[in-house]
Recover the amino acids of this structure.
DNA sequence: ATTGGCAGTCAGCGGATGCGAGTGCCAACG
DNA sequence: CGTTGGCACTCGCATCCGCTGACTGCCAAT
């Protein structure tokens, strides 16, 4: 069984390897850390750690590097959530201090997070489930195409194009707009959606199909929200850490641009309210990211949930990055929560 | 002086080098192309081309590669704008065929362009200068913060947060909204801006400052437009072409994410209406991109101008990419032009 | 359980070597 | 004068070799 000192050894192996990018040997451990025992003793501990598959040697007679399992133990039991430095706190303040609309805040947040962690940062748009409809607007684009704009009380703006089967004159459209606004403004998304489904147009029956089309699109727009949208920043950081990926980072960047994969990944990560969830290396193999780690945390905007986090090579500074993810998530919740 | 055959030699050097990524020698030229002369003759031509700085030898006794100047001559005089393949035309149709709002169309376009060219694609948001105000909406976020939303007839939606010096009750806000809508709806951006500047609030003079703040923000929102926004896709392609950059591609990716630099670059490129402008290698040195080429073309959305294009290593397939950029720009103009 | 010692392993480095692609130059030819 | 074949020369590149240094694994002693 691995002793307490053995776990300490694992910790310093992770720390040193993350810092130096070089396999760490028994000698360098006793040199850099005061364990009070000899290198040979450390070697015995390392042999045990290797038996437990927590560390591995890239080549015979080389130092050891942590395995995915080793990182997992480190993250779960050994990592000290290093508090942010004053400089980092300062950065958060100055970055997010100004007032801005939702889009702007999210873009700033994701940039901030990528700067704090030196990794690719990702922020998911908050769902609209708890938001309330503030206004509905229809803008004719052509005779048979209208733009439907939905404004929520949390400051979000959703738009959607509707193709009509035949032309709709401006006046009728005005009536539809007025009636629908009366019907849904002030309601929560779920209620609004229900209200729309139930609504029947009292005027000319000929209009009913077209109104149905509009209301169903609107209902769809309301229901779906935009949790399928993701903001990204810091792709350049992935290039910087290129050497930590055995193959090319091409597929990784592709997955990130694809977004779909990441949204699934976000969705499947544990959602313990304010903790940081970590998914390491091969745990992400199903998503085509067997050499990457993903740290996420939930945040709330007006009671609406979403996630944010970072993605990077397995070999990353978990302590610092987990702290940064948590800090930004909290700050963002605070910033967007004040209704 | 460089002969006609000399220029032909330059052309095949560019083509072969772009295709093979290897310096091309006199022998391989006579092998792959039927010049009807011997390798020695080609060598003489190449010596002239080298004198003119159109090609260079990476190492003594190696084949030649085009210089920036060589690419320039190629693009200006030698490139045949290869028409798109049927498959490519097909791709454009299926990609942009569906109806969608502006955001969606631009995102699809940029992805399409990156797929057609295998490079990083960029699309600038169209200006609002020719658009007309369709609706103005104010949404209270907190007691002293409101969200101003501007909807244009081209289907664009602009939002901005306004910080008020003191609270504004809902009813007053409603009045302001109603009056401002009457004042600007249907006007072009310039007129609307002017109308706002001239507007004086007839009610309580105590409200004048706050109304001024709102109108000036709105005017600002109208005036500035969003030409400072850029959509990007295909960053992964940059990784694929990494070897074509002598140093790291880190600064390149950084510049792309920064956007500011690229917007300046876009702005300074020739704006001949429907042609494709090309900026090669060191011509972009001022923008920190001395090893990259940028191809752009203008497009119009409802009479509003913007640019789109691709960015990649100097060693790229100019013929194909120029054709793709032009095709997408034209298609997009057509798609967004129908008002 | 811990330690010092010792043999064994292997990646990385630097220098030597050979190969081959490609050039530059020149003399000859039509 | 443009073109051609020939030839010597240059280098980049891959390969090989031997050395060195860092580590490990094991063992016997404490």
């Amino acid at each position: 069984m691995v002793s307490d000192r053995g776990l300490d050894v694992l910790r310093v192996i992770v720390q040193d390897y993350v810092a130096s990018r070089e396999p760490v040997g028994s000698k360098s451990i006793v040199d850099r850390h005061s364990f009070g025992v000899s290198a040979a003793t450390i070697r015995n501990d390392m042999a045990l750690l290797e038996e437990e598959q927590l560390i591995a040697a890239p080549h015979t007679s080389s130092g050891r590097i942590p395995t995915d399992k080793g990182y997992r133990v480190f993250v779960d039991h050994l990592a000290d959530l290093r508090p942010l430095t004053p400089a980092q706190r300062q950065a958060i303040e100055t970055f997010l201090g100004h007032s801005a609309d939702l889009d702007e805040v999210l873009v700033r947040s994701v940039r901030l997070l990528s700067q704090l962690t030196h990794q690719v940062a990702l922020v998911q748009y908050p769902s609209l489930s708890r938001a309330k409809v503030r206004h509905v607007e229809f803008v004719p684009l052509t005779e048979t195409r209208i733009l439907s704009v939905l404004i929520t009380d949390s400051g979000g703006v959703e738009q959607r194009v509707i193709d009509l089967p035949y032309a709709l004159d401006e006046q009728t459209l005005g009536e539809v707009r007025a009636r629908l606004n009366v019907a849904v403004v002030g309601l929560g998304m779920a209620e609004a959606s229900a209200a729309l489904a139930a609504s029947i147009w009292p005027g000319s029956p000929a209009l009913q199909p077209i109104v149905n089309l509009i209301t169903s699109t609107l209902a769809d727009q309301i229901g779906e929200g935009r949790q399928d949208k993701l903001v990204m920043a810091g792709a350049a950081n992935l290039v910087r850490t290129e050497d930590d990926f055995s193959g090319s980072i091409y597929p990784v960047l592709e997955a990130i641009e694809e977004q779909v994969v990441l949204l699934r990944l976000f969705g499947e990560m544990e959602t313990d309210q304010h903790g940081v969830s970590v998914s390491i290396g091969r745990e992400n193999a199903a998503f085509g990211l067997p050499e990457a780690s993903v740290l996420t945390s939930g945040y709330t905007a007006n009671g609406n949930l979403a996630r944010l986090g970072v993605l990077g090579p397995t070999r990353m500074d978990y302590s610092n990055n987990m702290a940064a993810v948590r800090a930004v998530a909290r700050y963002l919740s605070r910033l967007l929560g004040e209704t």
User: Anything to note?
Assistant: Strands of chain B lie at 55-56, 65-66, 120-124, 133-140, 145-152, 157-163, 230-233, 276-279, 292-301, 304-313. Chain B has a mean pLDDT of 88. Chain B touches chain A through 37 residues (CB under 8 Å). The first strand of chain B starts at residue 55 and ends at 56.
